[in-house]
Structure formats: C-alpha cells, structure tokens
Write a structure and sequence with these properties.
about 350 residues; alpha/beta; FAD/NAD(P)-binding domain; 2 domains; 7-stranded mixed sheet; 19 strands; about 25% strand
C-alpha cells in the first residue's frame, strides 16, 4: 500500500478546500488534497459543479429566452422575431462546457502551487492519517495537519426521497427537457432561483412553503419584490403549505394547507429544495474526537475543531453555506498552519 507524507492533508476540493490548498502552497507548505469527485462534486465542489456556477448559466439562458419571447410578442421598434424555441439539452451541454473549463482551471491552479491531488474516497483512520480508495488501489496519507472540507448535500424529505420525479437542485441543473409542470418544495433562495428560471423557460411552476411567506429567513422587505416578480411570471406560491408525500400514482404531490383540505398537485418534476445538510457520513469522522454543533462540525473563531491540528471549513461547519465564507476560512487556516498570526 502506497504511503504519502505531507504537512497538510485537505479532505474535499470545494471552494474552501482548494483555496486552502492553494494558499498553503503559496506559503511553502507540502499539501495533499483528496477529492472523490462523482455526480455531486469534483474539483470546485458543489458551487462550481452543481451549484452557483451552473445555476447562473441556466439563469442566463432563461433570461435570454424570456427576452426573445417578449420581443416576439411586442415587436419593439418594428423588429419582428419569429416564435423562439429552446433546445434545453443543448443548453445543459453549454452549461457543462462552462463548468468543465472552470474545473480545469482549478486543477491548473493547484498544480501551479505544487498541490498533490489524490482522486478517491477518503476515510480518516485517526487525527493524522487518512486511507484513500483510488482507482489504482488504496493509498495512505499521513499529515501534521488535517483540514476537513467535505461540504454539504441536498436535504431530502422522509416522505419524498430523491428518485424518479423527485429531484434535488443537482438533477434540476441537468434535466434534458423542460418540465411542463414543476412543483418546488421550499421557498428559500435555491428553490426560488431555479423555480424562477424554469418559469421563464415556459414551465408552469408552483412553489410550496411551510412558513407564512417566501424567503422566511430573510427580511420581509427583501422578500416583497421577489414575490412581485414571481406573480408577474405566473408562478403560483402556496404558503403555510406542507408537502406530505406523493399520490398513489407518483405523478402528483399531496399537500396540506392550514385551514384547507388536503389536495394533490400534478407535477412532471418535483424539486425538493428544503435546505442542505453537512456531509459527515462515510469519512470515518466517528473515529476522531470531534465535537459537533448539532448536525455540523463545531469550530472556534480560528476554524479549529476539538482535536489538535484538525481543522474544519465550509458547509461542514454550518450556516451560512456560502462559497466565499468557505474560501475565507480556507485562507485563515492555511495562514495559521504556516505560523501567521490572524487577528
């Protein structure tokens, strides 16, 4: 079994992990980055592969299509446009090309800063040792410092697990055709962002939210213009409504609304966007003496965990689950490991 020794081992190649690796390399540290890849990630993590970047690409395409449709209707300044159409499979292919170029760029940056990348699934053996299952066999990495950056994954609903018509944001960004009827469960920013895009692309979108308004964790003043825009796009919003399961045929969502009888909402696709959860299972973290903060890894202001020289950054450590927060944490940890003082 091959063994690798390093000063810093980083588990996870998302925004926090790869930025930590690059900054560590800039500071002269010997770094190994382990990234499994797969449908939910790869170098760049959720943000670059199945989150921020691909969603903005789809939104851009949706905006362009919406403008084309409007021009076909109004014929501004005498310009006549025939009825526009969109081949969504080609749109997704274009989006994938953007993602591919950017992930290649991340790989090039890591290589430039002498970061060793190990592709495979990491399992922690102890606070300084990790076993990685690679295509060519297992490897062991031993390091003075370990940075956990395993990220997050879409949270499913017990009554509607992912599969078939029930999809997460990951699958929504890779659909080969636009659903005629899309039900979005959850009126947070992920659900509304994708719901709005598909509404512009011509889908009949219904949004279900258990709270009494959309974007419930944000100020009501910020939510009002979003609500107006949803109404203008023809998106139906059902607040104080819970999704309790699928119909017997699986082609509708059963919903219960406060003060009203239960009913079914027909749907070609059901996008569950009720939040994300930390990715903690399957990495051997239970072998480490790590304190949890609920479902997330507990850290202090320096991103240090309860174990000496074991650090945690990004979505694994809780809200806000934002790429720029993970990146900032990655820089902090790299500089602390290198002996720099951080105020």
């Amino acid at each position: 079994m091959a063994e690798i020794a390093a000063q810093v081992l980083i588990v996870g190649g998302g925004p926090g992990g790869y930025v930590c690796a690059i900054r560590s390399g800039q500071l002269g540290l010997d770094v190994v980055l382990v990234e499994q890849g797969g449908p939910d990630g790869g170098l760049g993590g959720t943000c670059l592969n199945v989150g921020c970047i691909p969603s903005k690409a789809i939104i851009h395409a949706a905006d362009a299509y919406e403008r084309a449709v409007e021009q076909a209707r109004s014929q501004p300044f005498g310009l006549s446009v025939e009825r526009p159409a969109i081949d969504f499979a080609r749109t997704v292919e274009w989006k994938d090309g953007i993602v591919g170029r950017l992930t290649s760029g991340v790989g090039a940056l890591l290589k430039r800063h002498r970061v060793k990348i190990v592709q495979g699934h990491a399992t922690m053996v102890d606070g300084k040792t990790c076993r990685v299952e690679t295509d060519t066999g297992p490897q062991v990495v031993r390091a003075e410092h370990v940075v956990l950056a395993t990220g997050s994954m879409p949270a499913s609903l017990p009554a509607m697990p992912f599969g078939g018509r029930v999809i997460s944001s990951t699958e929504a960004l890779s659909l080969q055709q636009i659903p005629q009827r899309l039900v979005v469960v959850g009126a947070g920013y992920i659900g509304l962002e994708l719901g709005t895009a598909f509404a512009k692309l011509g889908a009949k979108v219904t949004v279900i939210e258990a709270e009494d308004r959309i974007l419930p964790v944000y100020d009501a003043e910020l939510a009002r213009p979003v609500a107006r825009r949803l109404q203008a796009l023809g998106v139906e919003v059902l607040t104080r409504t819970r999704a309790v399961g699928l119909s017997d045929g699986g082609d509708a969502v059963r919903v219960e609304r406060q003060g009203a009888a239960a009913r079914g909402l027909a749907a070609d696709r059901i996008l569950v966007a009720t939040g994300r959860r930390a990715r903690v299972a399957g990495f051997g973290l239970e072998r480490l003496d790590l304190t949890m903060n609920g479902a997330f890894m507990a850290i202090d202001e320096r991103c240090a965990t309860s174990m000496r020289n074991v650090w945690a950054i990004g979505d694994l450590t809780g809200e806000p689950m934002l790429a720029h927060r993970a990146m900032a944490q990655g820089v902090v940890v790299a500089e602390l490991i290198a002996g720099h003082r951080r105020v």
